[in-house]
Structure formats: structure tokens, C-alpha cells
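Notebook entry, structure prediction.
Reason for the run: the old model in the group folder had no record of what sequence produced it. Starting over properly, with the input documented here first.
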Amino acid sequence: MPTGVALRAVRAQLFEAADRVLLRDGPSGLTSRAVTTEAGCAKGVLHRHFDDFDAFLAEFVLDRVHRMDAQAEALREAVGTGSVTGNLTDALIALFGSVAVSIVALVTFRDELRARLRDTWPAGIPVLTDAVGMIETYLAAERERNRLAPEAAVEGLAPMLIGSAHLLFADRTGPAPDRDAVHAMVATVLNGLSPAEPG
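New structure, fully documented this time:
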């Protein structure tokens, strides 16, 4: 198959199928056969476009990480508007209500995938490290606008918020936390640091 639109369409179809399998069956259920069956194509299609299944998974993870760019842009645009706690609550729900939690589980589950990702992602776990950077940038911008206390250590608050949100959303078997639960967690982390809001 020639490169171009046709190749992009096949990759998108396979990645979307991987999303569905990962969300439904978890990392252990994500196999090349499961992906191609979900995509409604022959198993050989995946192997025509990727060297092996771990190469497919590495590109799938990086593609999903790049999809966070829109979330990062939305958070940047929220600087100075609404409430800091509310903006962070919405951002964390958008992030962890997506396939992100499953991506983290997948990377943790597969040693070979982590090794492949090291070529392009030298430290940390994709999604989580990007998310920490996104939140830290937002907090720093709000601190510059005096909507966050000058002493707020954004480099520590960002991983705390991401780690706490990950724990809230990590259980795939139960219901996702509602907005109130996420908001309460954010408010606890930021307690006293956002002078424009009630503590």
C-alpha cells in the first residue's frame, strides 16, 4: 500500500481499535489479534505497517500522548479565567477520563514497550510526565497572575495533583470519580495557595 492518506487511515483505524480494546479488556487483553479483530481487518495488516507488535504499541502510545496537546492548549487558554481549582478539576477529568489511565497501565505492564519508548521518551512514563509538565506550566502562569500564592511550589504541586488524580481514576472495575470528588482533591492539594478562592 502506498504511503499517504491510505497509510494514515490504516494507522488511525488500528489505533482507535487499540483504544477500544485497552479500555474494555485492559493491558493483558491488548494483543495484535485483538486489535485487528476489533478493527475488522486481517492480522497481517498490522504487521505490514509495523515491524512488530511492540513497535505498533510504541507508536500508539506516542500518538495518544500527542493528543494531549489540545488539552494543554485549553488549560493555557483558561489561565486568568474561572477558578484555579475548577480549571484544574476540568483538566484532570479530561485527562484521566480518557484512555490515559489505560496507557499508563499498558506501559507499566509491558517491559519491551518501555524499552522501545526509551528511544524517544528517555525518562518517566508517557502521559504522566507530559501531564505533569502541562499542570506545572498552568500553575506557574496562575502564580504570575497572583491567582496562586507566591510561595506555591508548582514543581511539587503538579506531580502531587497528577499522582492523586491517577489514584482516583486507577480502578478500571469501579465507577469513575465524579467531579465533586476530583474538585475536593484539587482543593485539598491547593489549600490556602489560591487566594482568589475560598481555602
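Summary: The mean pLDDT is 85.
The old model has been moved to the deprecated folder.
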